[in-house]
Design goal:
This protein has a single domain, classed as Rossmann fold (3-Layer(aba) Sandwich). The protein contains seven helices and five strands, in the order ααβαβαβββααα. The strands form two sheets. Strands 3-4-5 form a three-stranded antiparallel β-sheet, with no helix packed on it. Strand 4 and strand 5 form a beta hairpin. Helix 2 packs parallel to helix 3. It is globular.
Length: about 230
């Protein structure tokens, strides 16, 4: 939608991201695929360099998966420093960044409407393909700190942090199954197809507006930098 509204060219979606924490326990056959951080960064870099070589001066990478954001700062800077191209990472409104869609989310903060199979995700999947929804299997759930950390630590959503002495300032590399017993984080029973449709409309329009602003930036990659992009 955003590309159509802003009349902007876009690439195919990268079907795999950075998700080692979603792999689950060995042999359970959960089905997650993941790139390593090194591989994911290489893909972003090489796709970026390809587009710069072909004449693009501004690149917007869009991700709906929060963990992709953890591993790409250095490669975005590399693209900019080596070529002068404008490059940014656009995170769609999910998890803790859903202020654009406050009006359509009804759940209180403790239900974390942007997390896994909660209000937001259930709604968007419902709007995208309702055959993927089976509410007979739905259940509301929250997170906890990994049990091996003991009672001094807590955790209230799917972020990469735990809370200690009332402060959420400690990042711990955790596996999803260590802090979520059911994989659900939030309340799927608040989800509706209508909310999902509104989400796509609002988030698509917001991204289109951002693209229009980026078009105004006076940035042009020098030809010698484009030549470098072909050799990098």
């Amino acid at each position: 939608m955003a590309a159509e509204l802003s009349k902007t060219i876009y690439t195919p979606i990268i079907p795999v991201g950075y998700s080692p924490h979603h792999m689950g326990e060995v042999g359970k056959g959960l089905g997650t695929l993941t790139f390593s951080g090194r591989t994911y960064r290489a893909i972003v870099y090489e796709l970026g360099m390809s587009m710069i070589y072909h004449g693009f001066n501004k690149l917007i990478f869009v991700s709906h998966h929060g963990s992709n954001t953890k591993v790409i700062d250095d490669v975005l800077r590399q693209l900019r420093y080596e070529t002068g191209c404008f490059v940014c990472w656009y995170k769609t409104p999910t998890e803790r960044t859903y202020s654009l869609i406050d009006d359509i989310m009804e759940g209180p903060p403790e239900e974390t409407p942007g997390w896994h199979a909660g209000e937001l995700e259930t709604s968007t999947v419902w709007a995208w393909d309702e055959t993927l929804i089976d509410m007979d299997k739905a259940q509301q759930d929250r997170t906890h700190a990994p049990k091996w950390m003991g009672p001094a630590f807590s955790k209230h959503d799917g972020s990469d942090k735990v809370t200690f002495l009332g402060s959420e300032n400690i990042w711990v590399p955790m596996e999803h199954h260590e802090y979520s017993d059911t994989a659900t984080i939030g309340n799927p029973f608040r989800g509706t197809k209508e909310k999902g449709e509104k989400y796509f409309q609002i988030s698509g329009e917001a991204l289109a507006k951002f693209i229009e602003e980026v078009k105004k930036f006076d940035i042009k990659v020098p030809d010698e930098k484009r030549e470098f992009a072909n050799r990098a």
